[in-house]
Design brief:
CATH superfamily of one domain: P-loop containing nucleotide triphosphate hydrolases
Distance between the termini: 35 Å
CATH class of one domain: Alpha Beta
Largest sheet: 6 strands, mixed
Structural class: alpha/beta
Number of strands: 10
Strand content: 25-35%
Helix content: 25-40%
Radius of gyration: 17 Å
Bound molecules: adenosine-5'-triphosphate
Number of helices: 9
Amino acid sequence: MRVLDIRGLAAGHGATTAVRGVDLHVDAGEVVGLFGPNGAGKTTTLLTVAGCLPAHDGSVEVLGRQVTRRTGARALAQWGVRLVPENRGLFRQLTVRENLLLGLDSHRGAKARIDEILAGLPQLRPLLGRRAGLLSGGEQQQLALSRALLGRPKLLLVDEMSLGLAPKVAAGLLVMLRDQAVERGVGVLLVEQHVPAALKVVDRGYALAHGRLVHTGTAAELRADPDVLASAYLGSAATE
Ligand code: ATP
């Protein structure tokens, strides 16, 4: 089942267009990477899908429903879209448990729901009473991911999960994300700077440079293409 279908998307901030002509899709249970250098338009694409920015042109379909300027982030969340933003969006003064409760639309059955999520991310269990601000970067990212999964998403948008983390911690988190997505049949669109690590867990990927798609393919195809890695770090200069 197609959980995200983007065609000819143009989007940006105010009157400025940051991405144009983007075609991209994600199926249920699939992890799809979105790569590119700083400023390529990765976050802009995610924020547009999450309903935080309006599309300037083209179409965005989530779970077969057309997203319009009037849809908005709240409705998209109700449809089953969850965003794990680059800054993780945690409440640092609140405990891990309190942050998790914020991921639920209702507190009914909260304990069972949290137990179910912690079965897949067991390192968080002993930390339930700790303030989120006191967790390590990897633990905070696990918390952000757990909170998003508590909302039973169908489409999970993850921005720079490995930012500021040691490579080994980041690699472990990416594997955890892939396992959770597959187990729950969630489609994931993953923005990631650590392209080699991401290419070990994604099914397919897209690379943007200066707001345009410059590469797309399966993880194996992208791994075999030396231009992909170069363009992910250097921008379109490496692909022209
Ligand atoms: P990064 O890895 O640095 O986050 P990115 O690929 O996610 O890069 P975007 O953040 O989507 O890129 O930025 C795309 C373009 O939009 C850039 O030219 C950037 O300067 C611009 N931009 C980003 N945020 C804003 C904003 N709030 N207002 C105006 N322009 C913005």
